Structure formats: structure tokens, C-alpha cells
Amino acid sequence: MKILSAKQLKEADKITLEKQGISSTELMERAASLVFEEIHKRLEGAPIPVKIFCGIGNNGGDGLVIGRKLIEAGYAVTVFIVNYSDQRSQDFLINYERIKNRTRKWPVLLKSEEDFPEINYGDFVVDAIFGVGLNRPMVAWVAKLVQHINAAGAFILAVDMPSGLMADAPVADRESIIRASYTITFQSAKMAFYMPQTAVFVGDLQIIDIALDTGYLKEAKAVANLISRPEAKALYRPRQRFTHKGTYGHALIIGGSYGKIGSVCLTATAALRAGAGLVTIFAPKCGYEILQTSLPEAMVITDPHKEILTQIDFDIEPDVIGFGVGVGTKEGTTEAMRHLLQKTKKPMVIDADGINILSKNEDFFELLPEGTILTPHPKELERLIGPWENDFEKLEKVRDLSKKYKLIILIKGTYTFIVTPNDLYINTTGNPGMATAGSGDVLTGVITALIGQGYEPLRAAVLGVYLHGKAGDLCAEKFSYEGVVAGDIARHTGAAIFDLFETQQKPS
């Protein structure tokens, strides 16, 4: 699913009116009626006080349509007009007259703090003050109204956008943004819904199709692409019957140091569970017995050094290399990484201390094979690109690094971003239980395995992140968020692949 900008959505509205031969008022009626239906479906006629706060633009017009339909359906509704300016949109004025004439209930005008209504904990609040078009700070008393609404603790449904949130830009005043319990947005999600600093205001999200022009939506260049089951399923390549282990690639996992052999074991386990035909682990000597005992399916090569990697030499021909988990950043390991990069052009996935070494040795970037995948967590990312003021600046810095060295960079988080020189993908699977040691090691193994099987690096990154998150979701369903551990995520990778195909029978 595409994420579009506020400007693109405005253009989509304009083209829809022309192509479908309808007025903007009719399009507003269509969109707001769908929101009314969702509210009605949930409230089921319950005698809950509904308080709708409408701005004086088109988002306010949506709120007026919703209010009129709820009143006509028998709900106890009070509509408030947030009168922050003398200018009104034409569609707002039309629907203002309609709600007065058809329901005989005049909206209540709010002009200052003295007009703020009482909001109770059990109320159902609809936020239709500002929509996707907000591009400047609020008037002071309106900002206080937002704080007043938030403080009540009522259920808040935001129409299109929580008021105070901007679709495509950072916010300066976090205290003056509606903290929605639920957001119903029109046609396309917005970037702000997935940024760590702003996603918290959205609550649960529902995207409703208001039938904007399909031709425009198809041709529009996405700001980002959301990855859910349909997109992941389209990336999956089914296995052919007459194949063998060599068909599915030889993954070389290089990692580990004294006390951190578990990390490379998790990565190799995940690679096997994600379908790698062969997995070889390169680790310090101290890991040999551990790895041979705990993971009999993998082959093991050891470094001459007992505790760290110092001399990465191997006589195999891998299809892909996963490097960095648990290796540490000692000088000997740094030089070993330099030697590795100088001699190999195989596709690479670099994680953990491999990223930390890169951040200290800028010349290493020139040695990376094109399409190398980096999988930093937030602190590792900061070491790579430096600090940032907000999530939009962070994203631009990552894009710049991706373009400069032709890399694929993952910004790991609640919604993991996959950044390429030209495109952006946002994953929708995963849960708070995955905030656990070793989860990132598992992700490295999954992506490495997919590249070894012949997936090109971007497809491997997108599908790998989805499967990793879904495996975590399946674990959470079994064990709770608190009960998820990284080994479980690795072992549920196969179940995550099964889940791509809803009609496919799962083994008992």
C-alpha cells in the first residue's frame, strides 16, 4: 500500500472531482458517511454522549456531516465549532447549514478558553478540528483546547489526522496534538503515522477507501510503501520440487567473541529456519564446541584466535555473508573486517559491531559491495549518521548515506523502515515483545538466508523484515509480549512463511 503526501492527496481529490463529475461537497459526504458508519458499527446505538469538535475548514466539514448523521441516527450529539478564524471553507459552510436545517440542532461556537465545554471520561469525542492540510502552529487558545480534550481521558476518534499533527513534517509542540484512541484516515496512510516521535498520537489506525481516482493513485510516486501480508506474499518465491540444498544457497555467518557466541548461534539458526540450503559459521575458537553441539545442522570454521576474530580466511565459496553479530570492536577484529571487505564482493548483511566498526572507519564504506544491507538499532544508527533533531531529519540523513554508498539501510523500530537510494518501505509486523536481546541477530540471519536463496538484496530485506516481525507476532500470541525470546522468533520463521498463505494447511 502506498503512503502519499498531503500535496498528492489534494491532487487526488481534484482529479477525482473532474473524472467522476462530482462536487467537493459530494466527496466530503461520501468520506464522512463512511466514518459515520464505522462509528455507528461500534457504538450500536448506545446512549453515550458524543462530542464533536469541528474546525472551520474541510476537516470541520467532515465533522459536521458525521454529526448530522449521528443525530439523525438518534445519538446524543453536541457539535462544537472551533472558531479560530473568520475564514471558512465553502464545504464547511454548506454542511453547517445542513446540520442546522435538517437536525434543528445548532452547533455551539467556541471562541476562547471561557467557552471550553466539560468533557467526561465516558464521552465519545470526535476530533475534526484540523486535517491533513495543517501546515502551521495552532492559535494559542486552540492549543489549550487540544490539551483540555486530551486531559479528559475520554475516547477520542480522530478524523483523517489527529489535530496538531502534520502529515509530512515534524511537530514543534507535542503538548498540543490530539492523542487519539483511534484514527480513521482517508485513502492513504500518512508518514507521521509511522515515525516514532509522532505515531504515538495516532492510536489504532483504520484506512478507509473513499474511491479516489484509481488511475492517479496507481501512477503517483509513493512517499513510502507499506509492507503487509499481500506485499510480502508477492515477494515470496515458492520452492520447486526437483531441487537440492545447493539450490538454496550457502550462507556464511561471521561473528561471535568470547561470551557472545550465542549471538552467532541465533543468526545461524534463523538462517536455517529461513531456508538456507547450507550454513557455515566462522567464529573464534572458543565457540567451536558450543556451535557444533547446539547447532548440528551448521558447519563451523574457526579463527586462529581463541576469543576474538583476527584472521577471517576460509576456503569455501559462499553465496552471501552475514557479518558483525557479537564480534566486538577490538583492533584485531577491525583489521580482520578490513581484510574481509578487501577480498570479497559477495552480497553482505552487516549488523551490530560490524556497524560500529564501520562508524569508526569511514574508508570501509568504499569497500562495501553495492547493495550491502546494514541493520542498525537506534544507537548504532546514531553512530553511523550522527544525532538528529526529529525523525524526518533522521530519515533524510539515512537516505543520504544510502545514496552515497548505494546501500540498503534498515531503521529498526516499532515500524522498521527499509531505506534505499530511491525508495522507502515501512514494515507493519512486529510487537513490543521483540524488544529483547538477540532479536536483531535473528533478523540478520533471515535476510542473509533469503539473499543466499537468490532473492535480490532489496526483496530479501523487505520480505525478511516482514517475516521476522510476523514470527515475533506468532510468538507473542503463544507466550505474551513479555515471554518472547529471540530463539523463539528464529524457530517461528517457518510458521511466518506459512502465514503468508491463509488457505494453506499448517502442519499440526
Report on this model:
The longest helix is centred in the C-terminal third of the chain and has 23 residues. The radius of gyration is 27 Å and the shape is elongated. Helices cover 40% and strands 15% of the residues. It contains 17 helices and 18 strands. InterPro entries: Carbohydrate_kinase_pred_CS, CARKD, Nnr, Ribokinase-like, YjeF_N_dom, YjeF_N_dom_sf.
Lay out the secondary structure.
Layout: E1 2-3, H1 6-20, H2 24-43, E2 50-54, H3 58-72, E3 77-82, H4 90-103, E4 108-110, E5 124-128, H5 140-151, E6 155-159, E7 182-186, E8 204-208, H6 214-219, E9 224-227, H7 229-235, E10 250-254, H8 261-273, E11 278-283, H9 288-294, E12 299-302, E13 320-323, H10 331-343, E14 348-350, H11 353-360, E15 373-374, H12 378-385, H13 391-405, E16 408-411, E17 417-419, E18 424-427, H14 439-452, H15 457-479, H16 486-491, H17 493-499
